[in-house]
Amino acid sequence: MEYTKLGNSDLTVSRICMGCMGFGGATKGQHSWTLDEEHSREIIKRGLELGVNFYDTAIAYQSGTSEQYLGRAVGDFAKRDEVVIATKFLPRTDEDIANGITGQKHIERMIDKSLSNLGMDYVDLYVYHMWDYKTPIYDIMEGLNNVVKAGKARYIGISNCFAWQVAKANGIAEMEGFEKFVSVQGHYNLIFREEEREMVPFCQEENIALTPYSALASGRLAKHQGEKSKRLEEDAYAKFKYDATKEQDEIIISRVAELAKNRNVSMTEISLAWLLTKVTSPVVGATKLHHIEGAAKAIGIKLTADEIAYLEEMYVPHKLAGVMAQNTLGLKK
User: Fold this and answer.
1) Which of 68, 101, 171, 244 has the largest CB neighbor count within 10 A?
2) CB distance 128 to 165 below 8 Å
């Protein structure tokens, strides 16, 4: 495993981050394909054995059971100060707003619930899961600053946002002496490269870590044509993100398969080796042992400039999909 600093923080993270959205009670949330605790623990333990020290979860994942499974596994298999734990919080609900719960109070309640789920005193990275147009960004940044001052989080990050939003938030933080975002978790992979327009160069300029999710496009960049999985068949949200561009994406996926065959490695290794040339630490979900093993092997794959160009050549612009498509709903028309 290779390690690096997480942006402008002093956190040392593995170049692979284990995404924990696939862990949690299958009857507890939006996904039917998630793993029970026994199998989640096996994969977390294997990740630790492979040198993965960076784990990403969220209070939204299967009603907090992902956090619970991760916390118990880390408590049993690792020393707390040797792992980097990231979790994310949801926006205020309409009920919260009606009841006068401020952005600051909401964040305090969210972190306390996550820490209870995890069985931990602090998280290393607390992430603003999605932009909340109903809550002033000043309140969000002050609330996050309060969390860091209270010792409940070491650093803060943001997910599902535009570059101008990070710039605005960090600008407010700089003026007020608040904590600034040290990482961005966006939607970025070989078949969805819209982050390259502004976010990638912005983060490179500001030394903000890129820790993208959907690194393998919900398994599409890891499977040969015709291969099936429970997630591919049942993940309706992933289908919403990728089915509309399936025909053009398959051209790139076929090139991943071709390079994997030529190098006698997995498609996972090729897809992640490409992404590792662009970002700090991709968030890679794993629901089988070979998923995290393949991700770890990708660290050793060094693509040539010609191979990178071959993989990138056929990409065409995509419309925003998933949470990022919803981000625009709050903008004034």
Assistant:
1) 68
2) no
